[in-house]
């Protein structure tokens, strides 16, 4: 058996190693039993917190223990915040400065505890969830400047993690959450759409296969255009820039599925209904058809060097049919187009036989 290209090998243990493993299991279960017994009795103090530290370092996937740790921390925190979120002004002028200082130390300690775990287990949901909860406590319990500093630092950490693993979708999702909080009124924030859009450009330049960066980019576009106050001309120019960007990528990596997904997104902005969330909602039918024909011609050129990549044939088939619908005609009305679509679908059946039924459905749509 193999997993992600790495062959599994049988582990041969000596008797001494087996006994050592049994001893580790015994200690682990004893630690678990201690925590469960104390939690069942309603005991949530520093001693229990220390026990959870030991267990979570052994097994950070143990979600129940993270919940016990939450309760321990709540018992240790001093300032108000458990009953609700005070306003920004009241937090800035709160008299319990000593309590807030103590809470800040406790929260920073928890952040420090989870950081090495996150580095070692970057795709463990429970560490991300707990860390998010810790940061939310900073908003509830600390003055705005102190809370914002913690969240700013968190954004820096996520950037470092994405430098280490550029396509970690956990980190990308967490980054969106952190940015949303930094933009919120809770932290006296303002829009970071332009900065985040530039960040996606940077990450895409480093790796064209970064699906999460392309996805983030697509989500940011409406906000970026609105904040720029882009008129119809500026929106059309923006669309051309984005098409050129992804097409440059396709010219060197047409086998990359991430690029095709983003290209499909842009094409959907061209042929879709003229709603306000479209990149360029004011395009006329003639302009849309011209854009689509240009993309089809550019993709056709890829066939000269790449004749065995299914994404090319799929895009050509879909875009040609979309062009026919846009011009309110069937592909059959144009013998050349009809022949091309049939040839592309035949090639798709050869390259991707597992989806033959899908290609048959596309063929029906072409009629």
UniProtKB/TrEMBL annotation:
SUPFAM superfamilies named in the record: Protein prenylyltransferase
Q: Which reaction does it catalyse?
A: geranylgeranyl diphosphate + L-cysteinyl-[protein] = S-geranylgeranyl-L-cysteinyl-[protein] + diphosphate
| The organism's place on the tree of life at top rank | Eukaryota
Presence of the UniProt keyword Repeat in the record: yes
Q: Where is this region: Disordered?
A: 80-105
GO terms under biological process = prenylation
What does it do?
Catalyzes the transfer of a geranyl-geranyl moiety from geranyl-geranyl pyrophosphate to cysteines occuring in specific C-terminal amino acid sequences.
What is this protein called in UniProt? Geranylgeranyl transferase type-2 subunit alpha
Source species, please? Trichoderma cornu-damae
């Amino acid at each position: 058996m193999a997993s992600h290209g790495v062959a599994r090998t049988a582990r041969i243990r000596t008797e001494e190693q087996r006994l050592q493993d049994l001893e580790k299991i015994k200690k682990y279960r004893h630690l678990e039993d201690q925590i469960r017994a104390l939690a069942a009795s309603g005991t949530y103090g520093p001693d229990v917190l220390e026990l959870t530290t030991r267990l979570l370092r052994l097994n950070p996937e143990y979600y129940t223990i993270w919940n016990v740790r939450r309760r321990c921390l709540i018992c240790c925190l001093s300032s108000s915040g458990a009953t609700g979120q005070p306003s920004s002004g009241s937090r800035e002028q709160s008299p319990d400065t000593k309590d807030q200082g103590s809470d800040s130390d406790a929260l920073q300690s928890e952040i420090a505890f989870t950081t090495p775990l996150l580095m070692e287990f970057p795709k463990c949901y429970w560490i991300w969830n707990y860390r998010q909860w810790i940061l939310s406590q900073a908003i509830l319990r600390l003055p705005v400047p102190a809370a914002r500093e913690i969240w700013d630092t968190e954004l820096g950490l996520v950037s470092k993690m994405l430098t280490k693993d550029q396509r970690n979708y956990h980190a990308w999702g967490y980054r969106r959450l952190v940015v949303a909080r930094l933009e919120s009124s809770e932290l006296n924030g303002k829009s970071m759409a332009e900065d985040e859009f530039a960040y996606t450009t940077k990450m895409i330049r480093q790796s064209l296969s970064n699906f999460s960066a392309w996805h983030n980019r697509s989500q940011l576009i409406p906000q970026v255009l609105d904040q720029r106050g882009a008129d119809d001309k500026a929106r059309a120019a923006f669309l051309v820039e984005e098409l050129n960007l992804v097409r440059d990528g396709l010219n060197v990596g047409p086998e990359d599925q991430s690029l095709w997904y983003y290209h499909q997104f842009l094409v959907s902005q061209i042929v879709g209904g003229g709603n306000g969330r479209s990149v360029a909602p004011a395009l006329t039918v003639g302009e849309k058809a011209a854009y689509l024909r240009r993309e089809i011609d550019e993709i056709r050129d890829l066939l000269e060097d790449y004749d065995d990549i299914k994404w090319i044939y799929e895009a050509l088939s879909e875009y040609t049919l979309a062009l026919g619908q846009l011009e309110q005609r069937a592909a059959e009305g144009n013998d050349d187009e009809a022949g091309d679509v049939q040839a592309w679908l035949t090639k798709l059946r050869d390259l991707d036989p597992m989806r033959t039924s899908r290609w048959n459905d596309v063929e029906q749509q072409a009629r």
